[in-house]
């Protein structure tokens, strides 16, 4: 029985479950008290009993009830980490992994990286033999399965935030179901903020029992479901009378009006990404100069993945007296992280989502409307400490009649290239027959197989090729990037390509300069290469090294210092991976042609040709004749070489190609004859 979630369809008032107020930063005794005040604490015995007796336990509970931080500790206290075994807890987001791990280490009074550690791609903060509670992204756990398919070192895997239905979570759930058949002693805990538990339970129940199974001493294979009830505060929901066209501006004016009219309490704002968040921050800062009264007492804090660690800590530190925190966040604060002290929520109604069209083979990260389920989660963030308010920047009519009830699982809206290769590497050959929690579209699957075949990663029987296919699977990057690295070894430019791959794995190496675009463009010209962005990145990297990795150099050149430090780290890791795979590192010095060929070897599927007679720089993809334009952030913007290859598309009013390099068309048929077949002979 979950009586406290009243439906918002009825009145203007929502009731949410929420944890009682707590604060952090006190001694250990009071930390212990805080832990006991969390709603999940009342269920400690029940959870431990269910995990003991059931192979799979599903725990549903509102965000902030203590699922992520407490359950792994309960399991450890109950002995699940004895004998060197590890309790693993997966998260879809890297930032959540870091943040939750450091919180749990703090609660246990241990040093992060010892008993409690975490692993995200390119960052391992664990100690073998010592770490017994390990937080990791679901993607990293999938990678670990390549070396350890039955996850032998783990006693329990907690798959957290399962309601998000990320691609890796869904793959992981499918695989765990298989692993449990071979290792009945492995326990799986699935935790979720919303009541999709039944779907999950049906999924895990769907296993066939052979008669003999019942004789084996082991846990009940029927999944158990436990629902954690919390204490709730009302959240009053406000809607707009009329829709707005600029939600960033609307966000800013809503924040200012809350600050003017409402009593103290922090504000959590949901925007879509770093760009939005920076724009809003800038507008709020401008306001401080022009109209100090309206914005007095505001402490503006951005929250998005890729944020430097120091800034993350500010988010969790208590608000000074007389001040009001404004946290401008992506949907990471929707369920993954809980911030104390939030009383007001401003919901833009949007988030960035990945969408893939198998017909055009184009994947986009687009700003798209959220679902009702998300809108409810967002509003719920306001009711943790006391009754709160949620300002939705859309109309009630829109909420009721147009918003989708639930989001679409990522599995059904992304390109499946990485997913296929990971399953293949785990020896799962019949991918269409794999037991998915949500089935992927056959078209997307076929596209993925086709691309992997043309990259030389799969053979005619759809098996991984040796050595290329197996090597690609070992590289923790998109298969197209991995293929580019492997080709660079043959072409003798792996030193450079590894640098490029490291830069491409980072959102942007340029300093964010909302409002000073012109200076940034001028700074870029100092590094710009006629061949395109990839070569430009090499120039920046060289300059950074020559400066002695100086932060002043970065500042002068509009380069993001933190991003460059990350590039160096990632590059080191990639170098290690390459050496392990037997790829020697060679530099091509100034031979940019081989470098461009290596990029082509990975990304030939993204080739575009400038439309003849195009006056506005319109390109069409060679494969499917989609319209594409070079992104204004590219050094080739307005240069418009005849043939280009892009690394990714972003879609706003148009499809924009980001990170672009110019190529020769003859390379396409030379490098990818299977892909560019007779139809494109006109090349
Ligand atoms: P759930 O997983 O159910 O959403 P969590 O275990 O993440 O809940 O959070 C439980 C409590 O721990 C919350 O009250 C939250 O405020 C607190 N908490 C979590 N992380 C931190 C942190 N980094 N700093 C301070 N408090 C935190
Ligand atoms: Mg959680």
What would you say this structure looks like, in words?
By secondary structure, the chain is α/β, with parallel strands linked by helices. It contains 24 helices and 22 strands. Strands 5-4-6-3-7-8-2-9 form an eight-stranded mixed β-sheet, sandwiched between helices. The termini are far apart. Mean pLDDT is 89; it is low at 1-26 and 208-215. Adenosine-5'-diphosphate (ADP) binds at residues 19, 22, 24, 38, 61, 63-70, 99, 103, 316, 338, 340.
Concise synopsis of the structure shown:
With 683 residues, this protein is α/β, with parallel strands linked by helices. The strands form 3 sheets. An 8-stranded mixed β-sheet has the order 5-4-6-3-7-8-2-9, sandwiched between helices. It has a 7-stranded mixed β-sheet with strand order 1-10-17-14-11-13-12, with helices on both faces.
Assembly category: single chain
What is the mean predicted local confidence, pLDDT? Answer: 89
Strand-pairing-aware structural class? alpha/beta
Q: Enumerate the strands of the largest sheet in spatial order, edge to edge or round the barrel.
A: 5-4-6-3-7-8-2-9
Write the layout of secondary structure elements.
Blueprint: E1 13-15, H1 28-37, H2 44-53, E2 56-61, H3 67-77, E3 86-91, H4 94-108, E4 116-120, E5 123-125, E6 133-137, H5 138-147, E7 154-159, H6 167-182, E8 187-192, H7 197-205, E9 224-228, E10 234-240, H8 247-261, E11 266-270, H9 274-290, E12 298-303, H10 309-316, E13 324-329, H11 332-335, E14 342-347, E15 350-357, E16 362-369, H12 372-380, E17 388-395, H13 396-401, H14 417-425, H15 442-454, H16 468-474, H17 479-491, H18 494-504, H19 517-525, H20 533-546, H21 551-556, H22 561-580, H23 592-603, E18 607-610, E19 618-621, E20 627-630, E21 643-651, E22 655-662, H24 666-671
Helix pairs in contact: 3-4, 5-6, 8-9, 14-15, 16-17, 17-18, 17-23, 18-20, 18-22
Bound molecules: adenosine-5'-diphosphate and magnesium ion.
